[in-house]
Fold this sequence. Notes:
The structure holds two protein chains of two kinds. Chain A has helices spanning about 5-25, 30-55, 55-85. Chain A is mainly alpha-helical. Chain B is built from seven helices and no strands. Chain B is mainly alpha-helical. Chain B has helices at about 1-20, 25-45, 50-75, 80-85, 90-115, 130-140, 140-165. Chain B has two domains: about 1-115, NADH-ubiquinone/plastoquinone oxidoreductase chain 6, subunit NuoJ (Four Helix Bundle (Hemerythrin (Met), subunit A)); about 120-168, no CATH class. Chains A and B meet through helix 1, helix 2 and helix 3 of A and helix 1, helix 2, helix 3, helix 5 and helix 6 of B.
Amino acid sequence: MPTLNQYLVLSAVLFSIGTAxxxxxxxxxxxxxxxxxxxxxxxxxxxAFGRALGSADGQIIVFFVMTVAxxxxxxxxxxVISLFRHKESLNPDMFTALRW
Amino acid sequence: MIAFYFFAAIAIGASLMVIAxxxxxxxxLFLIASFGALSGLYVLLxxxxxxxxxxxxxxxxxxxxxxxxxxxxxxxxxxxxxxLRLHPLIRGGPLGFGxxxxxxxxxxxxxxLVGGRESGRFAGGATSSVRAIGRSLFxxxxxxxxxxxxxxxxxxxxxxxxxxxxxx
Lengths: 100, 168
């Protein structure tokens, strides 16, 4: 039976992978995927703490996080489609103008 | 214990592949594998509701949305010919930053593992049934639940407005 510490370490590693993806990659879609990795690492922390405290609240917070992630993905991908239509590129360095 | 290390290895390996792939379609597919492993970890944590929601909402809905957009845009490769020669993770700037980030992570994990108190094992017995979650969701968290419905509506309208073709 793994302990709480092991789940927290796994969550920290996954969160760091997501952070590295956000900073290193030059593709808007991959950056959004890295954000999803970070959200999932936090979800794992919530469930592990909920299990350690013997309460169902951890899973309820996970439910809300998933809802916000779905909304974020829908709006984010709509913005990506709109950007791609204007610049024909997915590189975030291309999007430097505040208006066009 | 073996199951924990199995799922943890899959989750970390698949997440690394997500940020190491050039083609976004492979990234999305590896992310689905990572979500499956996390779902297995939720089962190990006596959280069946979170496990099933993870599969249905994340792997089933959000990732299909990502896959759909990747195929719609049809721009699989990253930017210029300079980037085609080097793998995305070993370019000059990203490599230096990644080394710093990895060092910080290793130091912090080491400090947490050495200095931190060893946490006890989880208490026995299943504590969170779906029945308890539903009761709590519609009584204690009823306001947050309703606010979530408004959030989803706003996101839906916003996505339609943003992705709409402009008429001139």
